[in-house]
Amino acid sequence: MAAQSTLRKSPSDRFSETFDYFYNRLAARLDKLQRRGPLSSRTARLVATLALSLAIITASYGGYKTYSRRKADRETGRRLVRRNSGLRGKDGSRTIFVPYKDSTSRVTIFPTKKTTFDAHRRLFLASSGQAGDKYDPATMGPPPTGIKPGLNVAFLHQFLSLMNVMVPRWRSKEAGLLTTHAVFLLARTYLSLVVARLDGEIVRDLVAGKGKAFLLGICKWLAIGSVSSYTNSMIKFLQSKISIAFRTRLTRYVHDLYLGHDLAYYKLHNLDGGIGQGADQFITQDLTLFCDSAASLYSSLGKPLVDIFTFNFQLYHSLGPFALTGLLATYFGTATLLRKLSPPFGKLKAMEGRKEGDFRALHARLIANAEEVAFYNGGATEHVLLDKSFKELKTWVENIYKIRVGYNILEDFLLKYSWSAFGYIITSLPVFLPVIGELTPAPRSQSSPEPAVEVGSRSKSQNQSDGRMKQFITNKRLMLNLADAGSRMMYSIKDLSELAGYTSRVYTLISTLHRVHAKAYAAPRYQHAELYSLASIEGTLHRGFDGVRLEDVPVVAPALYPMGGEELIENISFIVGPGDHLLITGPNGAGKSAVARIVAGLWPTYRGLTSRPRQNGQDGIMFLPQRPYLSPGTLRDQVIYPHTEMDMRDAGRRESELQSILEQAKLGYLTDREGGWDTRKEWKDVLSGGEKQRMGIARLLYHEPRFAFIDEGTSAVSSDVEGLLYERAKGKGITLITISTRASLKRYHSYTLTLGLGEDANEYEFLRVGTASEKDSVEKELQELRECLAQVDSWKARRQEIEEELGEVWVRTGESGA
Ligand SMILES: Nc1ncnc2c1ncn2[C@@H]1O[C@H](COP(=O)(O)OP(=O)(O)OP(=O)(O)O)[C@@H](O)[C@H]1O
Questions:
Q1: Residue 757: which residues within 8 A CB-CB, separation 6 or more?
Q2: What residues does each domain of the chain span?
Q3: Residues of the signal sequence (predicted)?
Q4: Angle, nearest 10°, between helix axes 655-664 and 689-703?
Q5: Architecture category of domain 147-451+459-518 in CATH
């Protein structure tokens, strides 16, 4: 038996053989070198001295260089952190410094290349969810949000598409982390095998009463234990590293898409609507859960897979084909049963994510509008809304828990108890059924000598019994490991389903962002696109015109895709050249701000042509929105927004200039009042309504654009200051396009565009201020007023009559009542 057992080799045997082979080769080589005869001692000393000197010089130079670089880095870092600024690379990369311990740490961020986005479109915009589909915006439908998240082909496609983003190259950091992780997983499996074998040996030696061998076994056990502990903690560490690396890649990718030049952060919610309420929940929560789940899946699925192959292979050698067939049949049986009975965890998780998002959005809204709600004393109503949203979330989560209970009972019973019972039966087969025992290979020889060689001290039957004991213990441990690996695999079905839910959410976000970028809107299959829907845009937005021009452009309030928007004005045409200050006026809701939105590119030019300057800001166009926006940051950041301090320094602008701008905007007192340029506050709460609007004008004076849309930008400013602000802006050569209902502003403008005229309030009039036609129109208005005034006396008489009649009625009612 012993001779037979040496024919089969375990992985550990093979490892020691390989080690011996390389060790012997190395020893032979060293031996050969020695036999060649030593170099002459002088030459050897010279060579050694030279090599040492060279090493010292290189190391010192390298050390000095590293030290100087780090020192310079630290100083730059401190300076830039103080200024809340960074560095910009020629390739578009940005280097920022973040405080780390007592110093700073450098982080370089490379923007995602346009070609990468183009290449990814076919992955994220394939309507059927198949990677092979050719990308064509005309035929591609919306991203496959309708597909139920679960273990299906769509999930595979979505996951692999996201992997393209998370692991962009084989030589990337993420690929390195995954490979290292895989090496540690393999090492752990190998160590489990060694432990199983050692376990068998220790028990055998214990039963046989071999003290020395037993103690040696314990020492080996401890040594392997320390290596295993290191391996286990490295696996956990690498898993966290992989998760954060995935998250970094995905977050940067999403940010590049979301905050790129296409205004996706506006269009996503106002035009597309593909991801419902908000992207915040997707980016902050779902993305994190997805990365954690994907990183843990790699070890929770990868390790059991490796384990199952290795342990099965081992058991096959120990127990033969019969047992292996039984084992495999059990796996497939259990997997099929669990898969059949498994609730749709993916779908449930995706829905949970949405409900979490809704709840979070309500809270975010309350924070953003706290003052307004407080004035209305609307806390109770908000309370009800929040409680309702939370109740929906809670009910959903509770239902998931309930569904889980039944499934967990089945899963636990099958995987923990049925499998181990089955394992005991299989390992005991060679013991109780000698026929099977003969079919299967006998116990193998190990590093410790087989009892069979100790002839004379023990009987043959005793040796056989020891061998069987060792084999049983080894097999039992292997079986338990196998059951553990198998059950982890099966538990992973649930994890996999949950991952499918998170994958679907993250995929939906990215594919919707790609759709916004590519403007990939098509009419629903076999249907015509609705009028003024995103699939029926035929107009052109032309950037690079020295002025603002609309030619036969309908003003349409858009609806979410794929619905059609509402037409406010059928066609509008006007042109504003440099120096042609325009006042856009008209009743509320007539579409005044809508014109600004069309020119800014927020709303589509459905038909006709819209022309505007190429860039925003200096020498271009600027828009001051109706609701003033104050950014998080310093007082300086408020004046220079959307510039950062880095942009300001690059442009060679100084604080003294900012101070003079603030003074022109009648805000010169702010620097002293707020404690300097670097003061950070919640500016939206600190500044009054009028101050906020004047800050908008200060921004205008800082950026000095050629054209500026001011949407009700001075409604809260007193009229004397208002006039001053207009004169300052015009003095800087800015052509103003003001949106206001205040006719008094006419005097600062050369043209007026009046919207909301006619019976259906869908007509407009474009006039030069002071021209004959404008006088005509004022004359017409005066005539109407005069006619009204002429009727005043007859209206008064009629009112008198009515009051008298009513007086009589009251008197009669009073008498009858008495
Ligand atoms: N994001 C939007 N999506 C769809 N419709 C919108 C959107 N924003 C505004 N609207 C609608 O478009 C119409 C025109 O809005 P707009 O803001 O241009 O009015 P306005 O003339 O500037 O009015 P006001 O004087 O009150 O500011 C309104 O009926 C409004 O309800």
A1: 586, 763, 764, 765
A2: 2-85, 147-451+459-518, 540-767, 770-818
A3: none
A4: 130
A5: Up-down Bundle (1.20)
Which tokens in the block code for residue 758?
């006619």
- Of all atoms in ligand 1, which is nearest to the CA of residue 596? 18
DSSP result, 145-178:
TTSPPSSSHHHHHHHHHHHHHHS--TTSHHHHHH
Q: Report CA 410 to chain centroid distance, whole Å.
A: 36
CA pair distance 481, 457, nearest whole angstrom: 35
ipTM of the complex in this document: 0.95
Protein residue with least CA distance to atom 8, ligand 1? 557
- CA 627 to centroid of ligand 1, rounded, Å: 13
Q: What is the DSSP letter of 708?
A: E
Q: Are 60 and 68 in contact (CB under 8 A)?
A: no
Q: How far apart are CA 601 and CA 603, in angstroms?
A: 5
- The 10s digit of each residue's pLDDT in 401-442 is 888 888 888 887 887 777 777 777 776 766 676 665 555 554
Q: What is the pLDDT of residue 467?
A: 65
Residues with CB under 6 A from ligand 1: 270, 557-558, 568, 588-594, 626, 741
Tell me the residue type at 492: S
Q: Where are the beta strands (DSSP E) in 605-651?
A: 609-612, 621-624
Ligand 1 centroid from CA 597, angstroms: 10
Q: Which atom of ligand 1 is nearest to the CA of 597?
A: 18
Provide the token pair at 457.
């001290």
